[in-house]
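User: I'm writing a tutorial on reading structure tokens. Could you give me a worked example: one chain, its sequence, then its tokens, then a sentence or two explaining what the tokens reveal?
Assistant: Sure. Here is the example chain.
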Amino acid sequence: MTRTLMCRRVQDRSRRARGEPLTSAARTMTSAHQTLERLTAEAAQSGDDHRTQRIELGTSAVDALLPFLEARRPDVADLVIGDAHTWEAAGARVAERLRSGGRLVRSLILEPRAGDDHLVCEDGVIASLETLIATSPSINLVAVGAGSINDICKVASHRRGLPYICVPTAASMNGYTSSIAAVLSAGVKRTWPVHQPLGVFADVDVIREAPLVMNRAGFGDLLSKPYCQADWLLSHHVRGVPYSAEAAGVLDGPWNQMIDAAAGIGEGEAAATHVLMETLLVSGFSMAMAGTSAPASGAEHLISHYWDMEEHGQDRTVRGLHGTQVGIGTRISSRTLWRLMDVTADEVLSAAETAGERRPDDAWIARLGDHHPDLTEAIVEEIQEQFRKKQRHGDELRQELETLGRSWEQVREELRAILIPTERIDHALAQAGCITRPSELRVDLAHMTRTIQYCRHIRARYVNFDLLADLGTLDAMAEAIAVEVEDSAHG
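And here are its predicted structure tokens:
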């Protein structure tokens, strides 16, 4: 823990003594901070170098990296990895700090693929890094960057069985401490199981210097939490997907504090940025605890991944940062989930009776490409394989809906207890200065409607869009929701 955090802790005790309200950072000390301390202590006790055992967050946090490596990996050379932007932000300083401390340091600046304007975590760059580190089996990877750099290093180090260190340069996503990586593989966005970093060293001053749009994207990514949790619980009840109340609930307190700090996050305030970064780190741990991205990824993430796949398939620049797109997706998913709360048990049972007529077999999946004009034929074949894993037909679908209908009242109440009012989400997104309308990402009404109807095809994960489609109501509500989200954004 940095000196900055220690000072805040003393100041916060004084505030309590005077009966004054706690600062945002202080409230985090009793929630996200304590959660991170507990989780890293458990990891350290395990002795597993593929779990996150150390988190430093504050000003000059990177200064703690040298003594940590000297204590944990004293005779191992360091490979500091970044891209052109992150190298300037922190990579050069990290490499010099380690080198001046007597460590053997190599550096690697990754470049985008030809035709791309930014680095993407994809098969080619992962393979190149894996080949490089295969020649030095005891090398220590230090990933300096945000989403792409972190995921590239995660996958490569995981495949080689090596621990790695993460130095975030933006509060733009929640994957720093997760045990998954988002990879564009064969044109399809996938999540792969990997290991956590051994340590995370996050300098708040560096993170505050990141473009505001990046930290706002981190806020947008995390905003989805209650709806991801609802999708996860729904998949548990409908498909028997394992569900962990502990992993689902670990983010509850930090998430609410982050929402309270929305305006400060949007303006780049130090205390609010600290709250955001800690909440992102807790979110990553929730995925590691669950062994899946489900605590932090539901229907809203399918929207973002789908848009990325469309743009990559047509060799176009992506519409926005992942978290920026997830923020829009969350506004969509919040509305579909609340509409699902209006469905009665009788309506579920009625849909079961006609399921065989509406979806008698899977012949229609062969024509899936008709709904995805911007995806290549090869990508359509990939998503057909994914979609067949989850879509039910005929008697199988009828039986599934009948079973759900008999328990729907209880399931619905459990879901309702998780959900947050749509208005609160809309307001928080606007308060943080995030993009709130699909049109701001070049998504018109027809495209948004089609996305709601068909993005569920790209993954085998069961989400609320799937149930609404099986009930026969998703297509009918899609355009109205697209219109509402475009017209109702507010501050």
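What the tokens reveal: The first strand starts at residue 54 and ends at 58. The first helix runs from residue 3 to 18.
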